[in-house]
Amino acid sequence: MTRTLHAHGLVLLSGGIDSPVAAHLVQRTGATLEAVHVSLEPFTDATPEQKARRLALAVGLPSLAVVPGGDANEAFAQADPRRYFVLSKRFMLRCAERLAAERGASFLVTGENLGQVSSQTLPNLAAIDAAVSLPVLRPLLAMDKVDIMRVAERLGTLAMSQGPELCDTLGPRYPATRATAEDAAATEGRLPYEALLTKASAAAPFGPP
């Protein structure tokens, strides 16, 4: 039986292996997607953005917005290094949620996979989800990494995605695995959070990949 989801969403496209596969699986349901890439420049070079653009084209995403997230991520790494990953992902979802309002999108998509890395534990995912009101779809949540890579290979995206992981750029050696939304919000409350969010999301127009 074919499932048809007549809806429009935004996928957070990192440039890694998982997120283009997640986008492909959601598009198979009949939903339409546009891509959002959060850049960590100047802590990385332009390679992740370039990869995200190639991946968006490869999986048929018609447009992409690049969010300048370097300032915010530096602030998170300094303010609360052990919860950096959770704070960063909450910020990414909040930026995407603001852009979703402009694009008529009713849900968000990520390539997160339960337990694949330390940030993707159940408590951490719950703390991340609490940042936004839109539904967050994670079609890879319970998939084995080998199976994800097989799909990526069939799509032709595996070779494009491979390379150093961005989590090594600002992330801590021993990240928190049981973060709470309350702890994350407390750290956010000590930062000029709204200014960081507004600045980043306002500088992210959509255009062709």
How much helix, percentage-wise, in residues? 40-55%
Question: Which structural class is indicated by helix and strand composition?
Answer: alpha/beta
CATH-defined architecture: 3-Layer(aba) Sandwich
Using only C-alpha atoms, the radius of gyration works out to: 16 Å
- Unreliable segments (pLDDT under 50, ≥5 consecutive)? none
CATH fold field value:
Rossmann fold
Mean pLDDT score, rounded?
91
How many E-type strands? 6
N-to-C CA distance: 32 Å
Q: Helix count?
A: 10
What is the CATH C-level name? Alpha Beta
- CATH homology group: HUPs
Tell me the count of domains: 1
Query: Shape, please?
Result: globular
Strand order of the largest sheet: 5-4-1-2-3-6
Largest sheet: 6 strands, mixed
Report on this structure:
- With about 210 residues, the chain is an alpha/beta fold.
- It has one domain (about 10-200): HUPs (Rossmann fold), CATH 3.40.50.
- It contains 10 helices and 6 strands, in the order βαβαβααβαβαααααβ.
- Strands 5-4-1-2-3-6 form a 6-stranded mixed β-sheet, sandwiched between helices.
- The protein is globular, with a radius of gyration of 16 Å.
- The termini are far apart.
- The mean pLDDT is about 90.
